[in-house]
């Protein structure tokens, strides 16, 4: 029997965001009948990843996160420490996400990639890598500068008539909703709504199984 796929999301207070993440995990499970797929959270919601890992014998953790930032390096790493449970790479950066953003972007004079803010250098590098893939300006929905509304305003001042925001956010929530008030003409949907993301989750899981099998040989 294959190991449990333990998907670990950030967690949100948004009812819509909670539903979107549950739907993503349900889609993953439907694509692999018989595979035990479970959902846990790094913050805000329960069950916490540590609670689920404590009862798991054979599992692979797949972070439903867009970069190996604090929650991967601290929360998830701490939860699996000493268990032997492997943790895959997060979902981003990845060409699947770049392609998803590109598919959902309308024609525009300028594009702003809007991500959650972070002081983590690896996170910021991954955001810039993704922005380069779609030819976008980088901005942040919280914490870090430059802020989304400021970047949009600056592009307007420089003559951009139609500005699109590429939402580098997995699900609906406070950060995503602020993007609709940032002055752009359009905002792409949360990434988890794209069926291709479910395929990316499974790809991360299957790569971890192959790596673990190779180590045991």
How many helices? The count is 8
Rg, Cα atoms, Å: 18 Å
Roughly what fraction of the amino acids lie in strands?
15-25%
Overall average pLDDT: 92
Which architecture of the largest domain does the CATH hierarchy give at level 2? 3-Layer(aba) Sandwich
The figure for the number of domains is 2
- Strand order, main sheet: write it out: 5-4-6-7
CATH class of the largest domain equals: Alpha Beta
Q: Which structural class do the helices and strands define?
A: alpha/beta
Q: In short, what is this structure?
A:
The chain folds into two domains: 4-91 and 193-216, Rossmann fold, CATH 3.40.50; 95-190, Rossmann fold (3-Layer(aba) Sandwich), CATH 3.40.50. The protein is 44% helix and 16% strand.
């Amino acid at each position: 029997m294959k190991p449990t796929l333990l998907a670990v999301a950030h967690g949100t207070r948004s009812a819509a965001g909670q539903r979107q993440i549950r739907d993503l995990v349900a889609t993953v499970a439907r694509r692999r009948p018989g595979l035990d797929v479970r959902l846990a959270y790094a913050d805000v919601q329960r069950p916490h990843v540590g609670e689920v890992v404590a009862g798991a014998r054979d599992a692979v953790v797949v972070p439903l996160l867009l970069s190996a930032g604090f929650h991967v390096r601290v929360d998830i790493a701490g939860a699996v420490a000493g268990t032997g449970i492997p943790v895959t790479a997060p979902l981003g950066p990845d060409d699947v996400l770049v392609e998803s953003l590109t598919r959902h972007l309308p024609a525009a004079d300028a594009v702003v990639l809007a991500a959650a803010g972070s002081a983590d250098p690896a996170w910021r590098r991954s955001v810039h890598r993704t922005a380069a893939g779609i030819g976008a300006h980088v901005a942040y929905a919280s914490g870090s500068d430059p802020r989304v509304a400021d970047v949009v305003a600056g592009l307007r001042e420089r003559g951009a008539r139609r500005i699109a925001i590429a939402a580098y956010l997995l699900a609906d929530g406070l950060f995503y909703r602020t993007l609709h008030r940032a002055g752009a003409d359009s905002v792409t949907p949360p990434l988890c709504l794209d069926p291709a993301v479910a395929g990316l989750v499974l790809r991360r899981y299957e790569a971890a199984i192959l790596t673990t099998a190779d180590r045991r040989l």
